[in-house]
Amino acid sequence: VRSWIGITMVDSRGINDKIISELNLPISILLDENSVIVTSVFPASPAEKAGIQKGDIVRLFNDKKIKNSAELARSVTYTPPDKTVYVTIERRGKLFKISLKPALYNL
Hints:
Blueprint (H helix, E strand, L loop, with lengths): L2 E2 L2 E5 L5 H6 L13 E6 L4 H5 L6 E5 L2 E2 L3 H9 L7 E7 L2 E7 L2 E2 L3
Antiparallel strand pairs: 1-8, 2-3, 3-4, 4-5, 4-6, 6-7
């Protein structure tokens, strides 16, 4: 059993000026080597229903600091479907704690 939340993401180490401009991110993100940036949100996904948006920076998943996209993917994958988790995101310099329920990932 695997879960998903319905986002695509990139590590802050993998971004460039084009991504910064497209996602309207602060230039200071280049100095932050331990961030995960949401590059898209799937329609009707758990992430969209919870209010996560393209350009959000994921800081915590269930109160655990997220260092890279692989770590976030693992954390989501091994969370039981429909279990409420809390995701702390940064948007335009402000932190938001959002609750969401990962869904069952169907191949």
